[in-house]
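Sequence in, structure out.
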Amino acid sequence: MGTPEYDKFKDLDPFFGIVMKGLEGLVDGDHFWDAVADDAVFEFLYRFPGWPERIESRAAYMTALEGYSMQLHSANAIVVHSTRDPRVVVLEYEVRGTVNAGRKPITSGG
């Protein structure tokens, strides 16, 4: 995915890849950040200490992910849910990785 602007997010490439796979044909852009609208809203069903349930705007999401403390190893099990509103897509997926601070393996669904 190698855009210099996005290099600080390279540890998230498995996540970006699975999301872009789920959004194939629905969005423009080659990289996750190119496909995210400035006014996008992200809602998360999983709960991690210190991680919000909702993030509003591309810039806010980029800032939140700058401090992401996991090394992702894989992402799979994508399920795409269309909605009546063509601007809204719900993605379910799994990511596997290691928390950098303690190298504790985790699995999470999005």
